[in-house]
Design brief:
The protein is mainly α. The strands form two sheets. The protein has a two-stranded antiparallel ribbon with strand order 1-4. A two-stranded antiparallel sheet has the order 2-3.
């Protein structure tokens, strides 16, 4: 506890007051100042001590002496003189305690600033408790502004280039903890300027997501969410950005931690956007979009930062840039895919995507510098990612709508590709003879083409092929396979050919027959792409199978067990035993591939298990 160094005494009566001592004890001011409830002169110099005494011992002795003084006020002068001698003995006792050479007992020492606020309130020192809280808030605010200044300098340095050092994400993680502590210490309320948004003062309000996009000469608004979403107050001030949450190892151990992060909740990002102006906030988004992340952190970490910034812009009523509106669309599409239900207005979402595509075309046409070209290419890549998710969402509900959206995407994609590649050998690439024929798409890394990042995803193409095969649309599936591999530059995988091989002998479903072909919807620059794996109907399914296998050979793809099972299923359905023997011998001799458990069961059900085993053993022995 705090150590007493002086005992204030009244020169007229010699009394002292414990409240006065406590007041002077915690005020950290000169003890010559007077307390409000006692008129005491400054302490005489002869009563000052060189050493200090414990607070609890002094308080107990002084309380005892104060009680004795009050009880002896009506005594005679002789008794008062005795009390005066008693007072001197008390002072001598206190002086002995102060000069005690024995080791002090271990007890907490509490000074004025170190005293808890609860004790200050008990001692009626609310003024000093309020000062402490204000100083704590001011200290946290100073730390926030200091780190925010460093973030501003980094944004200005990398606004025209990418941040390869990862300093932006490092500053954001540090600001995450500083803002969270600052908000917990009674931060000022935040009033948002958007009309359809939620303010921190009214937690029970409901907010709508309305994307305001910049158009030519006007602003367009697209309401993505019809029904308002209730604001969740539990995660309002919680930490949002933590790279450890997104590391591969921790995400596998505890994947549920990622579910607690919801960028739609109002959080410290809103205060960050308020401290920055609108131009700096948009520049921060562009720097984060091009910044380098560590290998331990996945791309979801970048998505979480961008989504939080985009929704903070939306709550403040900012006009979103095309790349920011695409991030909002990607957020809703990802949630719709995971929850298997429509959470946003699909038409408004597609209109936002179309508007971003038109802005991308204008940006590609106007770019001259390398930095602007890299930003336009990034916008093009995000536009393709949203298109992949939108086509995948449409294919789960309506295959015709997904195919029409694919045709619409192909028209805009072809126009952008003509801007990026005005010259160059497209013909050799389109026929599949030379996958690296584009001069613009020289690979940055071995085996990775830049074109693969600026087209549809392999997962989307696989799902479209699977849906077409399930509905019996083999002609459209073969055309889509040629379009994906030889026209739009989707990374070629064996799974694409395996899906089409599985549906070679499957009859069309008359209930779900769709008579509109891709050839009527699409207008590719190379007609040969749609027919590269297509064979005449009179040739039969065997010719179609050989065309698909030759396509795999052209792209240098080795077949796997799924390819083997698809060919076994095809041979069993057509009852072509000579073809079955040739397939078994070739796969066992050249690739050492045997049927899977499902393939052996299929052969055993048709009575071909023993015969196939003999063919496999003869091929391995040879």
């Amino acid at each position: 506890m705090r150590l007493l160094r002086r005992i204030p005494l009244c020169q007229s009566c010699g009394c002292f007051n414990l409240n006065t001592i406590l007041y002077q004890l915690n005020s950290r001011c000169c003890y010559s100042r007077k307390a409000p409830d006692c008129k005491l002169p400054p302490l005489p110099t002869q009563l000052s001590w060189s050493r200090a005494i414990p607070y609890d011992v002094a308080a107990r002795l002084l309380e005892d002496y104060d009680a004795r003084i009050k009880a002896s006020r009506s005594k005679s002068p002789e008794a008062k003189c005795a009390d005066q001698q008693d007072k001197i003995s008390y002072l001598t006792l206190l002086d002995g305690l102060a000069t005690d050479k024995s080791p002090p007992k271990a007890q907490p020492v509490i000074s004025g600033r170190n005293m808890p606020s609860s004790m200050m309130y008990q001692l009626n020192l609310k003024f000093y408790a309020d000062i402490r809280r204000r100083r704590q808030r001011q200290g946290l605010r100073i730390q926030v502004l200091s780190k925010l200044s460093e973030l501003r300098h980094t944004i200005q340095a990398h606004v025209k280039s990418s941040d390869q050092s990862g300093r932006v994400t490092m500053y954001l993680e540090e600001l995450n903890g500083l803002y969270s502590n600052y908000l917990h210490h009674q931060a000022h309320p935040l009033w948002l300027r958007s009309a359809n948004s939620t303010s921190l003062s009214a937690i029970e309000e409901r907010s709508e997501v309305t994307v305001v996009m910049a158009a030519v000469g006007q602003q367009q608004q697209q309401q993505l969410v019809k029904h308002p979403v209730k604001f969740n107050a539990e995660l309002a001030f919680g930490p949002l950005l933590d790279s450890k949450l997104y590391s591969k190892q921790l995400r596998k151990q505890n994947s549920n931690r990622l579910k607690a992060i919801n960028p739609r909740n109002i959080n410290w990002i809103d205060y960050l956007v308020e401290d920055l102006d609108e131009a700096e906030s948009h520049a921060l988004f562009s720097v984060v979009a091009r910044s380098k992340l560590s290998e331990q952190v996945q791309s979801k970490y970048r998505a979480a930062i961008e989504e939080a910034l985009a929704f903070a812009f939306n709550r403040r009523g900012y006009v979103l840039h095309p790349i920011e509106s695409l991030r909002v669309c990607m957020y809703f599409l990802r949630r719709m895919m995971s929850k298997k239900k429509q959470l946003a207005n699909t038409q408004a979402l597609l209109e936002t995507w179309r508007h971003a595509g038109r802005c991308c075309v204008r940006a590609l046409q106007a770019t001259r510098e390398s930095n602007d070209k890299a930003m336009s290419e990034l916008l093009f890549m995000r536009w393709n990612n949203v298109a992949s998710e939108a086509i995948l969402w449409q294919a789960q509900h309506s295959l015709p709508d997904a195919t029409r959206l694919l045709a619409e995407w192909h028209v805009a994609w072809t126009r952008m590709m003509h801007i990026l590649c005005p010259d160059g050998g497209r013909r050799s690439f389109l026929t599949g003879d030379n996958p690296a024929a584009y001069p613009y798409w020289r690979p940055k890394q071995p085996g990775q083409l830049r074109l693969h990042r600026l087209t549809l995803s392999t997962h989307t193409v696989d799902y479209l092929l699977q849906r077409m095969v399930c509905l019996g649309q083999m002609d459209n599936a073969v055309q889509l396979l040629g379009l994906a591999t030889s026209e739009i530059g989707v990374p070629v995988r064996a799974s694409m050919f395996n899906i089409v091989l599985n549906g070679l002998t499957k009859p069309p479903n008359p209930r779900t027959a769709w008579h509109v072909s891709l050839e009527q919807l699409l207008k590719p620059t190379n007609r040969h792409a749609l027919c590269i794996y297509r064979t005449p109907a009179d040739d039969g399914p065997v010719a179609q199978m050989m065309a698909l296998l030759s396509g795999m050979t052209r792209w240098g793809i080795s077949p796997d067990q799924h390819t083997f099972d698809a060919l076994l299923r095809f041979c069993c359905r057509t009852e072509n035993h000579s073809l079955l023997r040739a397939v078994v011998v070739i796969f066992a001799d050249r690739w050492q591939i045997q049927p899977t458990d499902h393939g052996w069961k299929m052969l055993q059900a048709r009575g071909l298990h023993t015969q196939v085993c003999e063919w496999v053993q003869s091929a391995e022995s040879a």
